[in-house]
From TrEMBL:
A Pfam family hit: PhoX
TM stretches of this protein: none
InterPro entries in the cross-refs: PhoX, TAT_signal
Superkingdom of source: Bacteria
Full protein name: DUF839 domain-containing protein
Length: 438
């Protein structure tokens, strides 16, 4: 008889989260290897969904909104491959706007928008903007950017816009270059399909922006060779988007004697950061990550988030079989700009209940976080309590598609998350958030 993770959830048994952690993650995610992941923490065990869509703790419920293929207007439907998402205040009090990515290149359900919002007609990716009421009911939606490719993650800016990132360096049939970052105004006033070229052309994943200096920290999910961790320093610290348009300096992280971040396996390890200027950020002839002989790399650099005065960035996994220096099932790092050092906060060990951390968001309840799992087998939203105990917040009961775009509404009352495929859909999750245990 085999025991699956699904059986553990439905059987109500406590599992074991295989995470080794030392250090504090700023008191967000403390636990130890083999820590209990069960009903004693969080909101209790997950209750099987009679509809077979989303398992949640008792007292919580969800709405599905903006499913791939839903009609928007004549000839326009909701694009596919829902991915990175951020929330913003809506057009009226108690409303929320979401800007959501669609991770597809010249495949999938096409993002269709007017020419003024379309970058490359050959590309099917882009963003949609949604507005919901206080209950999570969809009020309106439209395609807010089209003609971009493989829009994976991104980041919310201090000036209230969304940076959508292309995780590609190009595809067959393109009419313009790809691998850029674009800005999307959630209120649609100044969105233009114009790349922010200063942030470089590479397989972008996510970005976290320092609100004080406007420095952007960017992850690259790429292979042969593996991607890099970058920072972009604009020439001025004022003006938001206009500062980015004026350009700046793109640099790559290079840690002495650490060619691969997977070599660091001891949480709490702090390393001095050195930053090396990128010779050609536009990668006119050579991919950015191939412009260095000696540099620090990592397999699967994914989510990024700014908080507590630091940039958090995630490595989803590392496998020696893929050419990495060591194995792990996920890392969370921080970069402290004041100390100019990176610190390994968290390591997922292979073989645990959860693996493949990707998107991350801060919970307004108890100082914890919610992580979107993109690992093997079943997929969860993973939360932590105010005492830093991990728990399963939700489970994809329909299929093995990853969770993406996890983010809270500005008032903290609704947790939004996407199922990326089968079909892509956005969930609005509500419930007794104050009931957090542990």
């Amino acid at each position: 008889m085999s025991v699956t993770r699904r059986g553990v959830v439905k059987g109500g048994a406590a599992g074991a989260l295989s995470i080794a952690l030392a250090g504090s993650l700023d008191s967000i995610f403390q636990t130890s290897a083999g820590a209990d992941v069960g009903e004693a923490y969080g909101y209790g065990p997950l209750i099987p969904d009679p509809k077979g869509v989303l398992d949640l703790p008792k007292g919580f419920s969800y709405k599905t909104l903006s499913t791939e293929g839903d009609p928007i207007s004549d000839g326009v439907v909701v694009p596919g491959h829902h991915d990175g998402t951020a929330t913003f205040p809506g057009s009226r009090p108690h409303r929320t706007r979401l800007v959501r990515n669609h991770e597809q290149s010249n495949n999938g359900t096409r993002a269709v928008a007017p020419a003024a919002l379309t970058y490359d007609p050959a590309a099917n990716g882009g963003t949609t903007t949604l507005e919901v009421d206080r209950h999570g009911e969809l009020l309106s939606q439209y395609v807010s950017l089209a003609g971009t490719s493989t829009n994976c993650a991104g980041g919310r800016t201090p000036w209230g816009t969304w940076l959508t990132c292309e995780e590609t360096e190009g595809f067959t049939g393109q009419t313009k270059s790809h691998g850029w970052v674009f800005e999307v105004d959630p209120h649609g006033k100044r969105t233009k399909p114009v790349p922010l070229t200063g942030l470089g052309r590479f397989a972008h994943e996510a970005v976290a922006v320092d609100p004080h200096t406007l420095t952007a920290y960017l992850t690259e999910d790429a292979a042969k060779p593996f991607g890099l961790f970058y920072r972009f320093r604009p020439r001025t610290h004022r003006g938001g988007y206009h500062a980015y348009l004026q350009g700046g300096r793109l640099e790559a992280l290079n840690v002495r004697d650490v060619p691969d971040l997977s070599l660091v396996q001891e949480p709490g390890t702090k390393l001095h950061a050195r930053w090396v200027a990128v010779p050609d950020p536009s990668a006119k002839t050579t991919s950015v990550r191939k412009q260095f002989d000696t540099i620090t790399r990592s397999q699967k650099l994914e989510g990024a988030w700014w908080g507590h005065g630091k940039a958090y960035f995630v490595c989803s996994y590392s496998k020696k079989a893929d050419g990495a220096a060591a194995d792990h099932a996920g890392q969370v790092w921080t970069y402290d700009p004041h100390r100019n050092e990176i610190e390994l906060e968290l390591v997922f060990k292979p073989g645990g209940r959860f693996d493949g951390p990707d998107n991350i968001t801060v919970s307004p309840y108890g100082g914890g976080v919610i992580l979107a799992e993109d690992g093997d087998g079943e997929q969860h939203l993973i939360g932590t309590t105010k005492k830093n105990k991990p728990f399963a917040m939700a489970r994809n009961a329909l299929n093995d598609s990853e969770f993406t775009g996890v983010t809270f509404s500005p008032d903290g009352k609704i947790l939004f998350a996407n199922r990326q495929e089968g079909p892509g859909v956005t969930f609005a999750i509500t419930g007794p958030w104050h009931r957090l245990r542990g």
